[in-house]
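Dear colleague,

Thank you for sharing your sequence with our group. We've completed the structure prediction you requested, and as agreed, I am returning the results in plain text so they can be pasted directly into your records. Please verify that the sequence below matches your submission; if there's any discrepancy, let me know and we will rerun it promptly.
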Amino acid sequence: MHGACRCGQVRYQLKSLPLYSGYCHCHACQKRNSSPCVSLFLIQKKEIDFSGKTSCFSIIGGSGKEMIEHRCQDCGDAIYSDLKVLDDVIVCLASTLEKPEDFKPEGHLWVSSRDPRFEINDDLEQQAGPPMQMMPYLAK
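Please find the predicted structure tokens below.
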């Protein structure tokens, strides 16, 4: 699997399949993308190679811990976020995948923050908060 920003200056290649893929309904994702939810995947940092230059900024995420967002410094596309609540795992936006069919969602996250005007009409698992699959990666 591989992806890039719109202008192609930032590119990435996955060395393994993501740890988790799904749709996030948290307030941070809603604001960042001006949408009711975001398609994303989580992967260990050592399992993805990046090229190109990003600009970064830091905010405090819903966990109360720092979240560093990386965007293409040329076109401004959001590429990935480094959530300090997780050890050695990053969150990539699935919209940057070059083959959209590579995105295989497993569920919906943070449905407790879901925009009530947005209906979920699939049979994917729904979790009120973060994916339980990520518990082994929580920062200590």
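Summary note from our side: The first strand starts at residue 2 and ends at 4.

Kind regards,
the structure core
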